[in-house]
Amino acid sequence: MKRISVKFGFYFFICAFLIESILFLLLYYSLVNARVQEEVKSLLARGNNHRDVLEKYFDNQTIFHVALMESEAEIKVVITSKTGEILAKSSDVDDAMRKHLYTKMPDINKNGSVAEDHWKTSNYICTISPIQIDNDIKGYVYMFLDTDSIKQIIQHLTYQFIFVGGITFIITVITMFLLSKFLTKPLIRMKKATETMSKGDLSVSLNM
Q: Any stretches that span the bilayer, and where are they (predicted)?
């Protein structure tokens, strides 16, 4: 008798577990992707804001001021001339940043372009905003965000999903156990009644 309940509960649990796992993975990856895209858009918008200021006042004082604004921030900014000469920077330029500075992009949109958004494999997320005055490119605003900060956010999100997943797993096991007991009771009664009737006792009544 117990085997019916155990088998029913086991198969029910496997189905529920697979469905929950697929839904959790889809939700997890969509949240991670949304969070990363949010950081990229925020970085690009910040670079465009600096670019807008520089298009109005493209002088040494303003260039220095823009770099100074990011000197204490998590984000790094590098302002270059049209030829790639560094005019100002908010912090030291390392090799990973220099790689982006000296890599020419084929097309840079007026509204800015994302040069790097592979947070898993790159040291920085990078955006470029062109400084255009009278239809002439005067320079570029490079914005860099260390991917370690994004990895920390994703790690925190992963821990939350593991915790919620563990709680969901325990609740699912308990629910499946109780549900299998409840649903298999009529089957067990029917089996007992069938066995009794097979022995010639037709006075059996099924109270379901």
A: 9-31, 161-183
Cβ(129)–Cβ(114) below 8 Å: no
Q: Which fold has domain 27-150?
A: Beta-Lactamase (3.30.450)
CA distance 161 to 207: 44
- Dist CA 20 CA 28 (whole Å): 12
Residue ranges covered by each domain of the chain: 27-150
Cα(24)–Cα(165) distance, rounded to whole angstroms? 8
pLDDT of res. 172: 81
Contact status, residue 54 vs residue 131, Cβ threshold 8 Å: yes
Q: What is the reported pTM? A: 0.74
Phi, psi of 79 (to 5 degrees): -110, 125
- Run of H or E including 198: helix 147-198
pLDDT at 105 over 80: no
Using alpha carbons, list the distances in angstroms from residue 149 to 36, 146, 152, 155.
Answer: 11, 6, 5, 10
Nearby residues of 176 by Cβ (< 8 Å), 6 or more positions away: 9, 12, 13, 16
Helix (H, G, I), strand (E, B) or coil at 141: strand
**Contact 127/112 with Cβ under 8 angstroms?**
yes
Q: Pairing relation of β-strands 124-133 and 136-146?
A: antiparallel
